[in-house]
Sequence to fold (297 residues):
Amino acid sequence: MSSYVIDINNEKQRSLILNICFQILSFPYQEETESLLLGFFEFSSHDDVTKLLQKVFGENGIIIMCHVTKANSKMEFYVNYDKTLLERIMPIIKDWYKPFVNELQNQHNVKVKEWKENYDIDHSEDILRNRIIDNINDLLPGFNYFVDFKWSYNDDNNNNYSDCENEIGDLIFRSDYGGIYLVVETKWLNNNHGDKAKKARIDGINDVKERTLKYKELAKKRFNDIVIGISYTNEKGKDPIHFVDITDEKIFNAIKAHKNKKIKKNESSLDPGLMGFMAGTTITAAGIAGIGILLRK
Fold:
């Protein structure tokens, strides 16, 4: 009897694995440990799905339980949820999303070129936006793919929507961790001293927070997908990035942590002599010279 082969290029397997992961990400972040219903999914064989779940999730310390329902013969899935779950599913999402990464990179290259040809170098908020795009690996680690700028909810259809939904958002990025979307709204703040400047700064911060929440929800409607929302400002002495809620922050940080772990692992695997050469090159240069429940596609 042949053994069950697990393959990320098997569309049926990939669909099940990613949909389970996305369902986990869709839960509001919580500290408690409990069993949560993920939903009902179809799969040809209970034995095969058990082997798949054990290999993919079990070996990462994640317990996914399933049983066939009597009502409709679909499989019902549960997960043992705890506060470390987000971090533990990130390598799974990363691996099983690999078949789509080349498409993300191609779209990114096109959009960056379009941005560079059209942004206003004298506009303060375009300067902020360009800073993000130019430093995407440092500022938004794990969300390396530029999707759109000056976007609206109805970009991809001919439907009529309210005036609110026709307004223009700032930036959208996407992650190779499952294709999760990240909406960024920017605001250039008045950092001068005085009561007027302080009030203008507070009003600006509140405004960009409201816009971020609004465009996060519109992006969820447009893409029918998981979306994280952040605002980005030039507030003096403060972190420029602010999240819509704690769930967004936890997902972002889980992706960032896994991304950084992979970078450190890759660096530690380099030849020591090569590392010494690279370090020497850096010193020399310094001497001379004196910052997103459907299958993603």
